[in-house]
Each structure stands twice: as C-alpha cells, then as structure tokens.
Design the sequence.
C-alpha cells in the first residue's frame, strides 16, 4: 500500500469515527426527547457505554463492533438485532425480546438476561462468563463454543438449545428445563 492509499484510509477511518460518534449522540438525544423507535438503525462501531435505551425498539438494528458496556436495554425490543463482536459487558438486557438476535463472538460477561425472550438467538463463540439468564426463554438458542462459566440458567427454558462445545464449568442449572432435543457439550450430557 502506497502513502497516498494509507492517507486515504486514515481519512476514511477518521470520518467513520466521527459519524459513529454523531450517531451515538443522535440516538441518545432522540431517546431523551421521547423517541423509542430506532428499528433498523445502523449503530455499528458506535460507543454507547452507559446509554439508557430502556423499552426502545431496536429491532433489526446493526450494532456490530459496538461498545455497549453497562448499557441499559431493559424490556427493549431487539428482535433480529445484530451484535457481532460487540462489547456488552455488564449490560442490562432483562426482560428484552431478543428473538433471532445474533450475539456471535460478543463479550457478554456479567450481562443480565433475566426473563428475556431469546428464542432462536445465536451466541456462537460468545463470552457469557457470569451472565444472568434466570427464567430466560432460551428455546432453540445456539451456544456453540460459548464460554458459559458461572452463567446462571436457574429456571430457564433450555428446550432444543444447542450447547455443543460450550464451557459450562460452574454454571447454575437449578430449576432449568430441557428436553431430549437439547444438545449438551460432549461428555457432559443432561445436567441433573
């Protein structure tokens, strides 16, 4: 790559960074003004650390590579949303609708999904260390290769859930429900 191309790429990165900064400011301002409909919005690579988007409609939103650390999404509509490689460390997603959402390869350490509807969501290769999923609807969720160490699944519905190659060390499964179509990591089998 020559000097001219490097300079063009650096300028493009700066412009994109500024646009993403503006997008974050715009959504927060719009939310504070009472708007809750952000369906289909592109928030990729946006920093929404500590943002409060409680009860917002972010269905179909693209939040790939976004920083959503400590963000509040309580009871938000996140159906079909994409969070590829996003950082949702300690995010509050309790009571959310995350049906068909993709959270592949995301950091979800200490995230709270209590009573959320995650039917058919994908968490492939995601880090859910100490995530809270109490009483969550996890039917047909894909946790393939996910890190679920210390995750709390108490009272969750795990019917038809795929946990192939997942790390379930010290996970709490008390009161969780599963069926014969639930796929467990090799050598673990149904947890009693």
Sequence:
């Amino acid at each position: 790559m020559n000097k001219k191309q490097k300079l063009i790429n650096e300028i493009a990165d700066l412009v994109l960074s500024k646009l993403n900064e503006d997008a974050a400011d715009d959504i927060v301002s719009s939310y504070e003004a009472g708007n809750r409909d952000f369906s289909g919005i592109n928030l990729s690579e946006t920093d929404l650390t500590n943002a409060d988007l409680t009860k917002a409609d972010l269905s179909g939103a693209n939040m790939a590579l976004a920083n959503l650390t400590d963000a509040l999404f309580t009871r938000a509509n996140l159906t079909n949303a994409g969070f590829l490689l996003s950082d949702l460390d300690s995010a509050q997603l309790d009571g959310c609708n995350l049906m068909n959402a993709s959270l592949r390869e995301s950091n979800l350490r200490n995230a709270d999904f209590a009573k959320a509807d995650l039917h058919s969501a994908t968490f492939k290769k995601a880090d859910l260390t100490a995530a809270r999923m109490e009483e969550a609807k996890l039917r047909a969720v894909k946790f393939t290769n996910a890190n679920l160490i210390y995750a709390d699944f108490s009272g969750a519905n795990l019917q038809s859930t795929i946990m192939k190659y997942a790390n379930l060390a010290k996970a709490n499964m008390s009161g969780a429900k599963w069926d014969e179509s639930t796929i467990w990591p090799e050598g673990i089998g149904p947890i009693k």
Summary: The CA atoms of residues 148 and 183 lie 15 Å apart. Confidence is low (pLDDT under 50) at residues 14-19. The chain has one domain: 1-192. The helical segments are 3-32.
